[in-house]
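anyone else get weird line breaks when pasting these?? whatever heres mine. first is seq + tokens for prot A
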Amino acid sequence: MDPKNISDRRKLKRKKLAYYMLVVDVQTQQTIGHLVDITPIGLAIDSQKPISLEKDFRLLLELTSDISNKSQITFSARTKWCRRDEIEPSLYDIGFSITAITPGDAAIIQRLSDKYAARDSYSFPLR
């Protein structure tokens, strides 16, 4: 898939994080990567392994104390794209859309985005 088409289809501009956080597959308890991008409706990670497209996950995101008094949140997400990283070819860049999240955890993701990402303002869709 052409990366240019992916960015053209995006409804919200991605926000680059200045801080990496672990993303874990709840079912296997394995780290699948580190969070590098986020919007209120999706996220991107760096991973050592590729992931199949349109695969559903229950993800756990580890948090820092400056974001929340919770150490982690969980939510459902689906893989939308996967490609080798252009700078570090031993890694894969993987994009997810958030498919289900509690309102409280959605607010935490919004705080995370506000604190570590660009200062664009997004309205977080509560599901």
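and prot B, same format (seq, then tokens)
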Amino acid sequence: MIKNGISIVKENAATAMATVVEQVGEEFIPYYQETLQFMLNGLSEYHQPEYKQFRGQVIEAITIICAAVGKAAFAPTSNDVIGTLLQIQNTQLERKDAQRIYLLTAWQRLCILMGEDFGPYLPQILPGVFTMATLSPSMGV
């Protein structure tokens, strides 16, 4: 469904997958690598504006899955996940972008998961986070 569904089906399938993995936790480790690669590929395949929400939900799903399998299973893939999220944060966000809140939550989730191991990534992550935090939303009636 994530690969072949329409946008809303893709969004719901990504969320459903993350929810299931969150419940089974470390029992999902045998399927983690393949699933993570599939989800990361989904982020690189869909760049059209109509997929912004889907991409945000995939970002959320990836970090929920990473947290569910635990720090030890996540560690070998941390560079790939963080690198992908940094690429999105630094090059693919528009001023009004649904992915921003998903990225902020993703960084929080990864920080909690990795603990001190998250520290070396902060010089790359924080400038983009500060940029997102300083954007003033335009309000209107």
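btw re prot B: The chain is about 70% helix and 0% strand. The chain has a mean pLDDT of 88.
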